[in-house]
Design brief:
Elements: E1 2-8, H1 12-23, E2 28-31, H2 91-94, H3 121-130, H4 147-156, E3 162-163, E4 176-179, E5 184-185, E6 188-189, H5 191-194, H6 196-201, E7 206-209, E8 214-220, E9 223-229, E10 239-250, H7 253-263, H8 269-276, H9 279-282, E11 305-311, H10 330-339, E12 351-358, E13 364-373, E14 389-396, E15 405-408, E16 414-418, H11 425-440, E17 449-452, H12 459-464, E18 503-505, H13 520-536
Parallel strand pairs: 1-2, 1-10, 2-7, 3-4, 10-18
Antiparallel strand pairs: 4-12, 5-6, 8-9, 9-10, 11-14, 11-17, 12-13, 13-14, 15-16
The structure holds 6-hydroxy-flavin-adenine dinucleotide (6FA).
Length: 541
Amino acid sequence: SAYDYVIVGAGVGGIIAADRLSEVGKKVLLLERGGPSTGETSGDYNAPWAAGTNLTKFDIPGLYESEFSDPDPWYWCQDITVKAGCLLGGGATLNGGLYWYPTDADFSVENGWPSGWQDHAQYTNAVIARLPSTDHPSTDGQRYLEQTFGVMQQLLEPQGYRHLTINDEPNSKDHVYGHSAFDFIDGKRAGPVATYLQTAEVRPNFTYKDFVYVSSVMRNGSQVTGVRTNDTSLGAGGVVSLNPNGRVILSSGSYGTSRILFQSGIGPSDMLALVKNNTEAAVHLPPQSQWINLPVGMNVSDNPSIKLVFTHPSVDSYENWADVWTDPRPADAAQYLKNQSGVFASSSARVNFWRAYAGSDGITRFMQGTVRPGAGSVNTTNPYNASQLFTMTTYLSQGVTSRGRLGINGSLTGMPLVNPWFQDPIDKAVLLEGIKDIVSGIATVPNLTLVTPDNHTTIDAYVNSYNPASMNSNHWVGAAKIGTDPTTAVVDTDARVFGMNNLFVIDASIIPALPMGNPQGMIMSVAERATAKILALAGGP
Ligand code: 6FA
């Protein structure tokens, strides 16, 4: 059987595209390399205390931090050197759930978007209608483990910050703070898996196949003729067929989509040469005369982030989340199992704030802060009270000018080739200024102590010696950037790969520059709009 649309990757972008295309009657095949995740999708990776329930590691928001201490973290892609989700839902199944409605400025021409993409409201509102955010995810409407909010209030108010419900005023991102907002529903992880995928799955014209790995698309010049998979039940040699005028959408995430493009003969010549030198992959690489030289993997950005660790006597560090999987606080576990309320109904973040900074190059950059009880690591020569720790992650968000590069090695492992953080010294100077502003307020909050860096380390020294790998925020965008010029962009303003008739990308890769907040809200809006654009294009199925 053949399909109108084959979508590769059931993550944030792919699920939304699949739902919208099947909604209008297209015959859609959604392929995913991983398997079930949440209980609703037959996932069964449960904490011992939730055994026998349909509440998996991925359903229970309070288990988020346990992803990073799991002895067998099978859910991370094993062939990508940075963190990416290789299971149904992709990053949306594993992420911290922070969820920001995109701002108007996120889609501005100044922020890299081609003209025509500025009026995002219709698409953002479509996302909000399916997946409203919440800043009080517990089913009883109460907020839990909120001590850091009070501390941050004391720290930020004297610096002129205003308290607001963040997603009620998405465009207000200067000197504002509020409760963290999440894509959780009924006290559980929601995201596209719990919403868009559910409506797609009841349609007879929609097919979902998991545990299918896509290596490349088969091309006849500018026409994709099939999708090459490792599943021979899908077609001879594992090749999935398209209907006449059928289209393929790559939604495999920044690293996954880039790798498929390379193996399909699309990308910089050094990456294609690596595929050609890989015995297994070389067999399916189109002849060099059909290679398309596009800047796949270039122009990537990710928020540089620096963590500060504090103590305050009012704060409950929640044992730094170390025991949530095997030995949770019994009352909290029981409360959650009873009706999805309490501490476990939220992931770890409790407070977010933003402030605008003018860089010496005239560009406005925003600093985002995310505050959570507990700390992953502490580096201090002074004594401190481990039960009072909390962490503030400071990120540079919209306005970041640094760019890096991602790609593959000879074994086709996905990896950063050039780190994107602080390539431009002005990015570094601005984040440093922001951190210093925060630290300058510590003295106004009784008993607030900065423990990392400790009082023998200057903020400059701390930032200067910060391990670049620890600056990673897992928010990679731009690998197949949208634009009007194939020397600097990979997809055109309809999300179609330059030089191809029927190959598209809908995922984080097409986003040209970082948005104001953690990116999944923007990716969702982009997926809504890109799908509408593709449907409106002449010549389709
Ligand atoms: N974003 C937010 O907005 N808020 C957060 O709190 C947040 N936290 C995190 C976080 O804590 C971690 C650890 C990570 C890794 C990311 C976080 N992000 C957060 C970022 C956010 O999750 C990502 O930006 C977002 O998921 C990217 O969406 P995409 O649609 O671009 O890509 P996905 O990775 O979601 O999905 C790709 C799918 O394709 C996966 O399901 C994958 O298994 C599949 N796939 C990949 N290669 C494939 C292949 N060759 N064949 C078939 N399927 C493939």
